[in-house]
């Protein structure tokens, strides 16, 4: 009887450990926390006569992708019976690591002095892609101006072609990311390079060039009356972000009856390789001298910033939910920890370098209670055994 009572007392304690999870990202409370975390710093600005926040410290940090997560939410744009009612929303967790410590070979990027952040997938991809593109552009232009002799100077013969020279220089050096087209091929062979990744950072209808009968413009891709959409989605384990083909404008339902290659004629870029890699992308504004610069406006915006932080990183930092309790002392006067509780619900679990996601973790308080009461149970069991043994000895003595 005593054993049965003890077991009944312990059952609620084990239930308690399961009943104290972290706040779920799917819950209304979780969504509310993230929204508030984004607005905290904006509210502080308004209370300080709209003084601009300085981001000088961010210039010494690099963005490191930590993982992605998918939450289900009601689709407010569902207008007819064929629209998806419950849509998927991607979230990305990233880390700002000190640039001198950030490592592409570590899944975490760095182990100290960092800040963790969470933001919508489309917002992250747009800013990350811009930052990465400008970093690549800087490296390519630097290499072209200092390592490649591709300027049409007087010492070049009449058959010199700058496009061929640049292509060969980059290819021979293994800098294929600097090549946007192959000048040795015609435009038809380069059709897959007409796909602009920047246009598909969020769910977007697939549009094809419409040059039939000399006409210009674009048309929406349709087959058998169905429209198709391309957008980013989170991999099953949360360690990669791919592009996929979908049948709805929220990119929730994957197209299973056909493929992008069947519809368009070439393989969908980033359908098997992640849009975001393991690289650390610096937040430091980097400029190069080039007369023919297609990003003059972006450069002008960055040049106007006295804090030397790239515009992409400013956008990421301002719009993200923040958990800065691991930043080194003195980096910021008042570290923002508004999103720490929320991010515990999408804790990144790294196993052999693979990023996975867990929706909750066990409560430390509940675990401690279980250990204490388990020890009490063992002590009580020993005491019952001791009493039973003593009573048995006395009974034998009386006999």
From TrEMBL:
<keyword id="KW-0472">Membrane</keyword>
<keyword id="KW-1133">Transmembrane helix</keyword>
<keyword id="KW-0812">Transmembrane</keyword>
<protein>
    <submittedName>
        <fullName>Uncharacterized protein</fullName>
    </submittedName>
</protein>
<keyword id="KW-0732">Signal</keyword>
<feature type="signal peptide">
    <location>
        <begin position="1"/>
        <end position="19"/>
    </location>
</feature>
<feature type="transmembrane region" description="Helical">
    <location>
        <begin position="364"/>
        <end position="386"/>
    </location>
</feature>
């Amino acid at each position: 009887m005593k054993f049965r009572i003890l077991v009944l007392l312990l059952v609620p304690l084990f239930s308690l450990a399961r009943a104290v999870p972290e706040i779920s990202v799917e819950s209304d409370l979780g969504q509310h926390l993230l929204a508030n975390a984004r607005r905290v710093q904006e509210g502080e600005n308004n209370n300080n006569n709209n003084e601009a926040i300085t981001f000088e410290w961010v210039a010494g940090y690099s963005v490191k992708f930590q993982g992605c997560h998918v939450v289900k939410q009601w689709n407010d744009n569902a207008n007819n019976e064929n629209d998806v009612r419950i849509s998927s929303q991607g979230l990305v967790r990233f880390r700002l690591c000190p640039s001198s410590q950030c490592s592409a070979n570590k899944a975490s990027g760095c182990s100290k002095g960092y800040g963790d952040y969470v933001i919508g997938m489309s917002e992250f991809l747009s800013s990350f892609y811009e930052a990465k593109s400008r970093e690549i552009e800087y490296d390519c232009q630097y290499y072209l101006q200092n390592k490649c002799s591709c300027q049409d100077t007087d010492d070049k013969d009449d058959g010199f072609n700058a496009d061929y020279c640049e292509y060969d220089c980059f290819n021979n050096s293994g800098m294929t990311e600097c090549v946007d087209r192959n000048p040795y091929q015609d435009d038809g062979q380069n059709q897959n390079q007409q796909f602009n990744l920047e246009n598909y950072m969020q769910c977007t209808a697939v549009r094809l060039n419409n040059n039939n009968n000399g006409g210009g413009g674009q048309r929406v891709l349709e087959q058998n009356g169905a429209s198709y959409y391309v957008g980013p989605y989170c991999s099953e384990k949360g360690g990669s972000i791919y592009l996929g083909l979908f049948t709805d404008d929220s990119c929730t339902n994957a197209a299973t009856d056909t493929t992008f290659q069947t519809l368009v004629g070439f393989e969908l870029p980033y359908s098997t390789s992640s849009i975001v890699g393991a690289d650390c992308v610096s937040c430091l504004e980097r400029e190069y001298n080039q007369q023919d610069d297609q990003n003059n406006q972006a450069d002008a915006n960055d040049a106007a910033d006295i804090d030397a932080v790239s515009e992409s990183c400013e956008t990421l930092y301002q719009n993200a939910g923040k958990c800065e309790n691991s930043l080194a002392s003195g980096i910021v006067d008042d570290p923002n920890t508004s999103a720490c509780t929320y991010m515990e619900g999408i804790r990144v679990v790294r196993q052999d370098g693979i990023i996975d996601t867990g929706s909750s973790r066990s409560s430390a308080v509940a675990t401690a209670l279980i250990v204490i009461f388990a020890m009490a149970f063992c002590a009580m069991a020993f005491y019952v055994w001791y009493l039973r043994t003593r009573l048995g000895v006395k009974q034998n003595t009386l006999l």
